[in-house]
Amino acid sequence: MWCSVAVRRLQRLSVSHLNLSPTQILQKKMSTLQRVYVTRQIPPDGLKILRESGQVQFELWDSDDVPIPRTELVQKVKGVDGLLCVLTEKIDAELLDAAGPNLKILSTMSVGFDHLNLEELKKRGIRVGYTPDVLTDAVAELTVALLLATSRKLIEATHEAKTGGWGTWRTLWLCGYELANSTVGIFGLGRIGVAIAERLAPFKVKRFIYTDVVPRPELASQINAEFVSTDELAKQSDFLAVCCALTPETKEICNKDLFSKMKNTSIFINTSRGGVVNQEDLYEALSTGQIAAAGLDVTVPEPLPTSHPLFTLKNCVILPHIASASYSTRNAMSSLAANNLLLGLRGEPMIKELHL
Ligand SMILES: O=C(O)C(=O)CO
């Protein structure tokens, strides 16, 4: 579906003045528009920006339910000037080769960029836009919801209530762990970690601690958090929230070693990327009572097969990667991705650009 707004504008032009037929005007104009492929039916605000820009002609994989098959994507990107993708598309050397030398701008509708081969993009001089900040509130909000659902056993509790497990009021039935007087650890302190801590502070958390490759004093001072080693984070946290990006350095960094240092009353929460966790080690830690519970919004693979052992555990709450899923945030992400793309194609600085 190539964009029709430019066509309508052309039809309004005075053809006699230009001495060209409407078809000729259209052909002339279309040849000056940059070609873009959009790999998903993104939320309406972003599509509107592209349609009304008068700058690009774009084709779209017109579904949100099924991702574009790889073979189709490889065909569709041929010769495009710009590509707007979501996090399910692997942007690697094969795809960039298929796109060819016209491709100058890649805009991903995500804050995460582990689906992009940055080295290959850099080698080809392709600029990259992404969507940080606009999703911080939604992700922090969902992280708090997941933390509470996990620590206070909400999913198990509603299941019990619905299926006849609700007998008399019992003194220790479905007891969990509370935030008041707790130590909350943040693994990877960035905008999202700060936003989570800001939301948790009113629950009377006693102390915030964090670890990262280096101390982040400016961010830490906003939430009065103390920098500690990874070992200390594991040992001291009552709630450990993973907020780091997935990189070669953080791949499966939450593993047996980390879980073995955590308290058996601790709650592990991950809303970053599934790849930072060794899921077999997590299963072991949860099933043996090494840690109390885990709440995951992200897994490997996604979707996690329904037969996965983690689904058998009462003390593991699994969500289908919905941290940024609010209407306003997803629209803001699609607008930012569209604007990044258009600015990049005009040779201007993007609103949010990954500097490679
Ligand atoms: O933007 C991202 O990276 C996501 O994971 C979607 O919220």
From TrEMBL:
A Gene Ontology molecular function term of the record: glyoxylate reductase (NADPH) activity
Q: What is this protein called?
A: Glyoxylate reductase/hydroxypyruvate reductase
Q: Which residues form the D-isomer specific 2-hydroxyacid dehydrogenase catalytic domain?
A: 36-352
Upper lineage is: Eukaryota, Metazoa, Chordata, Craniata, Vertebrata
The record's InterPro entries line, in alphabetical order, gives:
D-isomer_2-hydroxyacid_DH, D-isomer_2_OHA_DH_cat_dom, D-isomer_DH_CS, D-isomer_DH_CS1, D-isomer_DH_NAD-bd, NAD(P)-bd_dom_sf
| Protein family (similarity comment) | Belongs to the D-isomer specific 2-hydroxyacid dehydrogenase family.
Please give the GO cellular component terms listed in this UniProt entry.
Answer: cytosol
Q: Which CDD domains match?
A: GDH (cd05301)
Keywords from UniProt, A to Z, are: Oxidoreductase
- Top-level lineage group: Eukaryota
Keyword hit for Oxidoreductase? yes
Q: Which residues form the D-isomer specific 2-hydroxyacid dehydrogenase NAD-binding domain?
A: 144-323
SUPFAM superfamilies attached here? Answer: Formate/glycerate dehydrogenase catalytic domain-like, NAD(P)-binding Rossmann-fold domains
Indicate whether Transmembrane helix appears among the record's keywords.
no
